[in-house]
Every structure is written in structure tokens, then in C-alpha cells.
């Protein structure tokens, strides 16, 4: 599918899409740590349904009812298929690879070629797993776990390792060379709802994580809050009037809430309520941000930089390379097509923007959902339409995205349907 984005004045009210990261972790924890779990307001997308279908292969039962998913775990896992199809979901692959391999069975993991190319042996070695990846299938061999874990790379495998330890050991201690990633902290906070507590210490130049089972909970209820990352491009889009986004929690467990701090630093007025946010029409100043802990906000920050008049910098870009696309390369190509003055020096992106985009161009999504979100978020500063190729990449995380875009005044046309507004 290709979509044409027309100049639009964006304002209005939407309900945030549920958090993908929380939904994925809730589904996986429910399958290992509780007899029955009710997940309220889950995100239903290509990635989350992929996780569900593969968890069914070890006997987990899922029932969809009234915007809920009821997850039921049998007393013993019953494996019906040893081939785990992960499609394009890195979270599904990395987390299930760790959890399923620790069931002492021989599983084979597969997915899109682009996904398999992103999976590195180094992400699993410290966890006692050596992978064989021929970019068609991945197999795993167990080995001795390292006593001190390096988490320089993906946090998803570490999160799964912690969940696996909870399942097999209950209480345990792990040691890390470096500070825990925000997504690992999210995992630990969700574990509280399954009866686990955690303590994080810094002793003798290493991080010590103590996890303890406080009580066994057979029935768990989880409410999935709105997704700050998926909402980020709406948060930066308010140039005509205010945009209100419901179900974004003030006390969120998501690190990407930090985007609201960036908006405020840029001179944009933000009003917080317990369960929604209003971003008001404001003149914004150039931004200077570090994305080392929030790489998924990169496109939203680029969009924010484009609506300002002046020089913005975005630093620590290295984590953009190994995503759904090479996002550093994608951003560079998109800014060139949009005729925006910019440069990349080492791991810093410098954007010199006038606050307006001429448009009248075609941009490839690179099969990356976040490219699409960014292009739509600049609809209010473009003079001419922009065509996005392969815009159905939104299904990975946000199938109803264009419905919400229309609710805030976004004008677009899917080439075989007609103008939507």
C-alpha cells in the first residue's frame, strides 16, 4: 500500500494506542509466571499476534474478550510445534529464543531475512546460549552462563533471561557490567504484578540485581497503559491547535515519557493529567537530545527539529543502525529528499531547519513503521503532498494509525481508496 499525505492542520483528541512493549512482556510473563492472567487494553498488532501464535505452540491458551486477552497456562507445557515463526518481530524472537531454549527442548527459530540478519550471537553468549544463524533458521546450544553480564547490546534477551530465572528459580541474583537499560527496568516493574520484588545495587564497580519471589499469584490482572513511543509523533505534531492524547499516564513505567521533557525544554506547553496529556500550540526552539536510552524516539525528535527554525542536534545514533531499517541511513536519505540541510558527524545528527518543508516528493518507508509516523507528523509544515511507499508497515505496531491521524485532522489518500479526512 502507498499513501499520499496532504498538508493538514493537526489538532484534536485521540486515545493512545496501547503500549507494545508492555503488551509483549505481559503476554510472555503470563505464559510462564501465572496460571491465569487478564490483560486489559492490550495492543493487537502484527508483532503481538505473532507472539501469541508462537506461545500457543507450548500449550498456552489465549481468549479474546471485550478488549481483554485472557491467558491460561497449563500445569505442564505441551509442545505442538518446534519451529517458531517470528515474522518481523525482534522482541518475539529474542525473548522466546531465551525462554524456549531454557525449556531444554530443541526449537528452531525463523522469521524474515531482515530480522534474522539483526540477531547476533553476542547478545546471548553471556546468558549461556550460543546461536547458529544461517539467516534462514536459528538453532541454539546451551553453555555455561557468565557470572558478569554485559548488556551493551539488546535488552530484550536480558529481559527474557530474567523472566526465565523467575520461572525456574523464583529468587536469584545477577551481576551486570553496566547500568540496566530502561526496558529492563520496565520488565522488572511489571514483574511486581506477578509477585516479584527487585533490588538494584552498585557494589564493587558492578551492578547487582536481586530478585525475590514475594508470593505466588495464580490470577493476575494487568492494565496496559498507552504507548508514549507510538504517541510521540502526535505529541510533536501540534502546530495549529492543541492535541490531547488519552491513556498516557503521568506515572508511566515507560522511559520514553522523557519526550515530554524535551517538548518542555523546546518551549512547548504541555499540560499533564493523571491519565492524559495536552500539548498546546507553541513556537518551539531547536533541540539538543541524547537518544542512547530512547532510540525509538529518534524519528519523533527529527520531526520536532523540522518544525523549529534553527540548528538541532541528536546524539548517540549508534543504536539506530540495527533496527527495522538502518534508521540512521533512512533518516539521512529522507532529510536529503526533503531538501533539509543536515549533516552526520560521528554519531551526531545536526539539522538546520527553516520550520517548513516544501514537499512534493516520494519517500520509501523502508518497511519501517516509524518512518511513516514521522512523515505524517510533519503534515502541518509541508506545502505540497508527500507520497509514502509501503505504508502498510504500520501493521507491525499500530494498525489503526491512519484512523487516529484522521481524528486529528490529517488528510491522506491510500492510492486505491481516496482522500480521507
Provide structural commentary.
With 421 residues, the protein is an alpha+beta fold. It has twelve helices and 24 strands. It is globular. The two termini are 18 Å apart. The mean pLDDT is 93.
Gist of the model:
By secondary structure, the chain is an alpha+beta fold.
Strand and helix map with partners:
Blueprint: E1 3-6, E2 12-15, H1 20-33, E3 36-40, H2 46-55, E4 61-64, E5 68-72, E6 83-85, H3 90-101, E7 108-110, H4 113-118, E8 129-133, E9 138-142, H5 156-169, E10 172-176, H6 182-191, E11 196-203, E12 206-213, E13 219-223, H7 228-235, E14 243-246, H8 259-265, E15 270-273, E16 276-279, E17 288-290, H9 298-306, E18 310-315, H10 327-337, E19 341-345, E20 348-353, E21 361-364, H11 369-377, E22 386-389, H12 401-407, E23 411-414, E24 418-420
Parallel strand pairs: 2-14, 3-13, 6-7, 17-18, 21-22
Antiparallel strand pairs: 1-22, 1-23, 3-5, 4-5, 8-9, 10-12, 11-12, 14-16, 15-16, 18-20, 19-20, 23-24
Helix pairs in contact: 1-2, 1-5, 1-6, 3-5, 5-6, 9-11
Amino acid at each position: 500500500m502507498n499513501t499520499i499525505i496532504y498538508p493538514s492542520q493537526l489538532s484534536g483528541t485521540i486515545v493512545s494506542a496501547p503500549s507494545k512493549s508492555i503488551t509483549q512482556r505481559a503476554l510472555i510473563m503470563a505464559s510462564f509466571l501465572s496460571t491465569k492472567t487478564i490483560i486489559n487494553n492490550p495492543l493487537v498488532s502484527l508483532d503481538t499476534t505473532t507472539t501469541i501464535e508462537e506461545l500457543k505452540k507450548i500449550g498456552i491458551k489465549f481468549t479474546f474478550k471485550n478488549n481483554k486477552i485472557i491467558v491460561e497456562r497449563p500445569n505442564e507445557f505441551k509442545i505442538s510445534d518446534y519451529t517458531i515463526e517470528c515474522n518481523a518481530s525482534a522482541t518475539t524472537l529474542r525473548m522466546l529464543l531465551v525462554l524456549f531454549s531454557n525449556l531444554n527442548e530443541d526449537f528452531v527459530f525463523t522469521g524474515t531475512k531482515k530480522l534474522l540478519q539483526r540477531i547476533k550471537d553476542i547478545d546471548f553468549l553471556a546468558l549461556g546460549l550460543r546461536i547458529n544463524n544461517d539467516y534462514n533458521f536459528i538453532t541454539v546450544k546451551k553453555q555455561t552462563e557468565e557470572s558478569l553480564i554485559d548488556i551493551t547490546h539488546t535488552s530484550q534477551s536480558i529481559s527474557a533471561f530474567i523472566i526465565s530465572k523467575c520461572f525456574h528459580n523464583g529468587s536469584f541474583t545477577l551481576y551486570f557490567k553496566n547500568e540496566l537499560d530502561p526496558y529492563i527496568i520496565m520488565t522488572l516493574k511489571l514483574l511486581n504484578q506477578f509477585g516479584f520484588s527487585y533490588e538494584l545495587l552498585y557494589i564493587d564497580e558492578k551492578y547487582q540485581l536481586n530478585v525475590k519471589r514475594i508470593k505466588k499469584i495464580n490470577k493476575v490482572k494487568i492494565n496496559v497503559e498507552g504507548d508514549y513511543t507510538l504517541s510521540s509523533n502526535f505529541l510533536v505534531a501540534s502546530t495549529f491547535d492543541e492535541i490531547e492524547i488519552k491513556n498516557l499516564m503521568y506515572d508511566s513505567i515507560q522511559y520514553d515519557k522523557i519526550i515530554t521533557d524535551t517538548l518542555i525544554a523546546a518551549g512547548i506547553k504541555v499540560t499533564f493529567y493523571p491519565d492524559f496529556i495536552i500539548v498546546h500550540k507553541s513556537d518551539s526552539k531547536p533541540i539538543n537530545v541524547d537518544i542512547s536510552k530512547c532510540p525509538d524516539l529518534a524519528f519523533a525528535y527529527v520531526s520536532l527539529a523540522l518544525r523549529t527554525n534553527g540548528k538541532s542536534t541528536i546524539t548517540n545514533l549508534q543504536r539506530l543502525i540495527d533496527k527495522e531499517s538502518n534508521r540512521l541511513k533512512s533518516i539521512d536519505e529522507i532529510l536529503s529528499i526533503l531538501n533539509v540541510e543536515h549533516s552526520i558527524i560521528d554519531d551526531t545528527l545536526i539539522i538546520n531547519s527553516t520550520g517548513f518543508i516544501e514537499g512534493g516528493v516520494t519517500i520509501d518507508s523502508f518497511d519501517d513503521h516509524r518512518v511513516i509516523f514521522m512523515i505524517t507528523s510533519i503534515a502541518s509544515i509541508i506545502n505540497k503532498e508527500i507520497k509514502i511507499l509501503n505504508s502498510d508497515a504500520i501493521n507491525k505496531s499500530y494498525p489503526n494509525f491512519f484512523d487516529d491521524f484522521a481524528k486529528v485532522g490529517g488528510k491522506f489518500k491510500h492510492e486505491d481508496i481516496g482522500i480521507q479526512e
